[in-house]
Design a protein that fits this description.
Blueprint: H1 3-19, H2 25-45, H3 52-59, H4 62-73, H5 89-127, H6 140-153, H7 156-159, H8 162-176, H9 178-189, H10 191-212, H11 219-233, H12 244-270, E1 284-287, E2 290-293, E3 296-298, E4 303-304, E5 310-311, E6 314-315, E7 326-332, E8 337-344, E9 346-347, E10 351-357, E11 370-376
Antiparallel strand pairs: 1-2, 2-3, 4-5, 6-9, 7-8, 10-11
Helix pairs in contact: 1-2, 1-4, 4-8, 5-6, 5-12, 10-11, 10-12
Length: 408
């Protein structure tokens, strides 16, 4: 360990101690004892010419770092200087509001992106459909704003947010429970295995999509690169919190796709599957209040006579005389949405035409914003009734040949 690095750390700790000077000396020493191992880890990564400015770039100023220690330990904030002039109201508004708006956009942008990525990963794996990943494009602007603030101002302002302080206080209260602290400590030891699991799950996710859609093979190189970045960034997260903006969305994608993959596996085991060649895919099934054709839910039934003429007011029963009643839906006139209006076994039912409507009554137009629903009677298609095959006439048995009488 070089002398320069030791000097930089000592100077940094001295400034932290000065910022905590109003606290009891014993408690200050206890706080500093908790952070020394963390500083030593950072110190091991610094170059031989590292200075206090390098530590400030990584951790923030010693004064802000001391403020974090106060918040995590539940200590009161540092007293304000006695002769500090109070800022004018206009200055207070101009300085305080932007300083909280930017960090909050960065923090909640990261949270929103992680949740969105988890949901998209879950649905993509559950349906084994790579096309669902296009939904991530909606998250790109939010994530870009969050990362832009991070690159420009660093994570220090985010760490000083009140909600982050409350989260730290909750974490500290949880650690005060010895059983919970043991569980958290044990989970911390599994972090190296988690980064490896992330890379493997990403690869398995890509293979699952490729098995269903061949063009998804283009995702495999991208997922392999992301897995490599996680293996690199995960162990460095403790010393550089900026990497959280990479690790958190990827971890969310891994968790979401893992649960989605488990759901798809259960579906396959249950025999529902996704393949149209499955023996149950084209088999009608009926449960109480629900008629299904494979995995598709049937909401209407159309009946035709032998000439292809649609039949009205048809009532369906099973072989035991029980009505095949399913839920009937209609349009809610006030809201333009659909609603359940009971169950019956009368078919066919009016077709529900749904969409959006603008103020001029145009349906599914460019400016449509209100829900639209209309009940349309009749049959929306023409049926080609197969002609019955005439039974073939049975073959007449051939007469046995008449033998001539024997001759003498």
């Amino acid at each position: 360990m070089s002398t320069d690095k030791s000097t930089a750390v000592r100077v940094y700790l001295a400034r932290v101690r000065t910022a905590l000077a109003d606290l009891p000396a014993a408690e200050v020493e206890e706080l500093l004892a908790d952070v020394r191992p963390h500083l030593q880890e950072i110190e091991a990564e610094l170059t031989a010419k590292a200075t206090v400015d390098d530590l400030v770039a990584r951790l923030g100023t010693p004064e802000s770092y001391a403020a974090e220690l106060r918040a995590s330990g539940g200590y009161p904030a540092a007293p304000e200087p006695a002769e500090t002039p109070a800022p004018r109201p206009a200055e207070t508004t101009a300085l305080t509001t932007p300083s909280l708006l930017g960090p909050r956009l960065a923090l909640w942008g990261l949270v929103f992106t992680a949740l969105g990525v988890a949901l998209i990963g879950f649905y993509s794996a559950l349906r084994a459909d790579a096309g669902q990943l296009i939904g991530m494009m909606l998250l790109v602007p939010v994530f870009a704003v969050s990362v832009g603030f991070l690159l420009r101002h660093g994570p220090e302002a985010v760490r000083n947010l009140p909600e982050v302080d409350r989260a730290k206080a909750v974490g500290k209260s949880i650690r005060e429970d010895k059983s919970a602290d043991r569980a958290i400590t044990y989970l911390s030891t599994l972090k190296p295995a988690w980064w490896l699991a992330c890379a493997l799950v990403l690869l398995a996710f890509g293979l699952l999509l490729t098995a269903r859609q061949r063009h998804a093979v283009l995702l495999l190189p991208f997922l392999a690169v992301v897995g490599g970045l996680v293996l690199w960034a995960g162990p460095r997260l403790k010393t550089d919190t900026r990497l959280l903006w990479l690790v958190a969305p990827v971890s969310a994608l891994v968790i979401g796709s893992a649960f989605g993959g488990l759901g798809a596996t259960f579906d396959l085991i249950a025999g529902r599957g996704y393949s149209s060649n499955s023996p149950q895919y084209n088999t009608p099934t009926y449960y109480d209040g629900e008629l299904r054709y494979g995995t598709y839910r049937v909401n209407n039934v159309y009946a035709f006579d032998a000439n292809g003429k649609p039949l009205e007011n048809v009532y369906l029963y099973d072989d035991r005389g029980r009505p095949l009643a399913i839920t009937r839906y209609g349009c809610e006139k006030d809201t333009g949405t659909t609603k359940s209006i009971g169950e019956d076994n009368e078919y066919p039912r009016p077709q529900l035409i749904q969409g959006t409507q603008d103020d001029h009554g145009n349906v599914n137009g460019y400016n449509g914003y209100r829900d639209y629903c209309r009940e349309q009677p009749g049959v929306p298609f023409a049926a080609a009734i197969p002609k019955p095959v005439a039974p073939s006439s049975p073959e007449q048995p051939s007469k046995p040949p008449v033998s001539s009488p024997p001759t003498r």
